[in-house]
Design a protein that fits this description.
Radius of gyration: 12 Å
Distance between the termini: 20 Å
Order of helices and strands: HEEEEHEE
Strand content: 15-25%
Number of helices: 2
Oligomer: single chain
Largest sheet: 2 strands, antiparallel
Length: about 70
């Protein structure tokens, strides 16, 4: 893996799944944390595929700030 590619991966703040920022439709919590698509939807988030954006944010309650797999 190229060094620049390693920075494009994060881990879901809820389940710990690997999320590829450029490819997956994760929900960005902040500059360092994301939710994977399934966790964001499970938490009530709604994604509009045609507009390519989250139209309703997922519930972010109870997410540990330092969650790492």
């Amino acid at each position: 893996m190229h060094a620049s590619e390693a920075h494009q991966f994060e881990f879901c703040a809820s389940c710990g799944a690997e999320v590829q920022i450029a490819r997956d439709r994760g929900y960005a919590l902040d500059a360092e944390r994301v939710l994977c698509f399934p966790c964001a939807v499970q938490r009530g988030g709604s994604y509009d595929e045609h507009r390519d954006l989250w139209v309703e944010a997922p519930d972010l309650a109870n997410l540990a700030r330092d969650r790492k797999p």
